[in-house]
Amino acid sequence: MNEPVRIVITADDVLHSFFVPAFRIKKDAVPNMYTFTTFTPTKTGDYVLYCAEYCGLAHSDMKGIVHVLNEQDFIAWESASDKLNKEGKIATESGNSLYLERGCNACHSVDGKDGAGPTWKGLYGQDRDLADGSSLNADENYLKESILYPKEKIAKGYGPIMPSYKGLLSNEEITEIINYIKELK
Length: 185
What we know:
By secondary structure, the chain is an alpha+beta fold.
């Protein structure tokens, strides 16, 4: 409560729309990209979440609840959810496993040292200079595009040597890798 919340939204199949009337927010969830919205809830309680885009036969079943907690209750919830995490792993461990299993470690370090590809340490949220002279922010969309279409936006100082992982990683695996990169500060 009274803390800004940033939501990262994506869809696997068709266009959806994240809609919480009580917060007066609505943001489309677009397949194969990330969209973002931010809001600051001011009252504790449970608020209904809808999909506001007709997305198919089960559209009317797409409802959820946003639980707004005070700080003390949120800390207790967060602690309990870490303990209940499936397989006893936190998200970054899953991303680290993919980093090793998929061979990302052959070119990308996680300790700040450069290799054949840029280090992942400190990458997320930073402005990146590209080989074509342009620059952009290394947000979720840039990272996903770099995994799926690595020759499109090449980091300055590196060659176009990374293979595409399109069709080799699921959207969930890509999200796990991105969450891992986000934790490498």
